[in-house]
Write a structure and sequence with these properties.
Blueprint: H1 3-10, E1 15-19, H2 28-38, E2 44-46, E3 52-55, E4 58-61, E5 75-79, H3 83-96, E6 100-103, H4 110-116, E7 124-126, H5 139-149, H6 159-163
Parallel strand pairs: 1-2, 1-5, 5-6, 6-7
Antiparallel strand pairs: 3-4
């Protein structure tokens, strides 16, 4: 399956979660989580050490792991973790029947990709070469295109621009 097709399947899920979501605007886990909400897509933050994650000025209740998701079999998951932690997250996702995963650049190595793409592991895996970013498919770079392909692109709320905004700063348009 092409990565484009995998991205369409990924965004066809009714629910979404972000493993590695963070309240720290300098971290990609924050930027990815904020991107979902800027696109008017509700996503559950998954963070083992935080009860809540704040993004775009709103606090969201976090869950400590994928097992705590209310309907994992209906949830596509973006994962932003170091490669060493990724395999554990993927094993949990597979056991829970998570249908699709998006592995952010820098979060995987060859062994992780091989595991994720094993026959029957997931319905769709978005990762690797082919995206518009220089390190492969990234929600921040390729997400809008994938949403459009899945027929889910609404009116984004300044998407990436807002997800990258630092606290206390204002954009010229504000």
């Amino acid at each position: 399956m092409s990565t484009e097709a995998a991205a369409r399947i990924f965004f066809s899920s009714p629910l979404f979660a972000v493993v590695g979501a963070s309240s720290n605007p300098a971290k990609f886990g924050h930027k990815i989580f904020a991107w979902y909400h800027a696109q008017s897509i509700s996503a559950t933050p998954v963070n083992p050490t935080a009860a809540t994650v704040t993004a775009l000025g709103q606090e969201h209740a976090a869950v400590p792991n994928l097992s705590a998701l209310p309907r994992p079999k209906e949830t596509s998951v973006s994962i932003i973790t170091p490669p060493a932690a990724m395999l554990k997250v993927l094993k949990e996702a597979r056991e829970l029947g998570i249908p699709a995963v998006w592995l952010q650049p820098g979060s995987f190595d060859d062994a992780v990709i091989a595991y994720a793409r094993e026959e029957g592991a997931f319905n769709a895996v978005v990762a690797g070469d082919g995206g518009r970013g220089h390190e492969g498919w990234c929600v921040l770079v390729d997400g809008e295109r994938a949403l459009k392909a899945a027929g889910k692109l609404g009116e984004p709320d300044r998407g990436l621009e807002r997800a990258n905004e630092q606290p206390g700063t204002k954009l010229a348009s504000q």
